[in-house]
User: What shape does this take?
Amino acid sequence: MIKHLFFLFAAVTFFPGCEEKKPKPTPSPLVSVNMVEKKSRKCVSDSVCAEVSLRYPILTGGDNTSAVNAINDSLQKMALAGIVANPNLTIEQAFDSAQVNLFALLQEQMKQAPDWGAGFFKSLETKSLLNTPKFVSFGMNASGFEGGAHPYYFGALASYDLNTGKSVELIDAVRDTSALRPMLEKGFLDAKKQSPADDTLKLSDLLFPEIGRLPVSANFCLVPEGIRFFYNPYEVASWAVGPTEITLTWEQLGSLADRKKWLD
Assistant: This one.
């Protein structure tokens, strides 16, 4: 698990007769985030195997048990969706079922193409991106290969209110969501430039022609730096363009978002 660590630096100057200024302490998290890992591997031959791996969070502690349970339930469903497993089953049953199905697909592939030499896999990784007394955020990255031209990949972001157990909606985080579009368009373009000085690349060179302008993505979460957005391959652009992560800082957002509401 990759955790974001935050350090508060304070430069204090001492003058005779002046009171020392103390830095504001960082709020302590109310919940603990424990990552659970499951892995399974079944082979058709020594070198051709079907592998499933899953890494998802379980929250414990906090002041509102029902809210924490609701968040855990939501995160489990997201994780199972990432390995294309039945979310109505228990985590153990769903994981085992995903392994059985993937192995069956690989066996069928071997029947149709006896010289097939590549294994199949499904994988989901989760990162804890924010953990404050009021809110938590997570990022899930799923990838896999089940034949075809290339592997697949997609990411999902989510923030949750520890008081209610509900996910945070973009309209709750930002005062005017339409005002985000110019910033996201610039962020998308900057993410794809070969160098910051490159002024030849245009957004129209990247997006599907029918897209027109970049939509404001609902795939977002709160992070210490600001609000993070994620665009998956094929969502607004071709596979070759790849996934795109954009973090709009609190400074960029300005009056559109209240940092203190989410982090203090």
User: Anything to note?
Assistant: Residues 91-112 form the longest helix (22 residues). The CA atoms of residues 188 and 246 lie 7 Å apart.
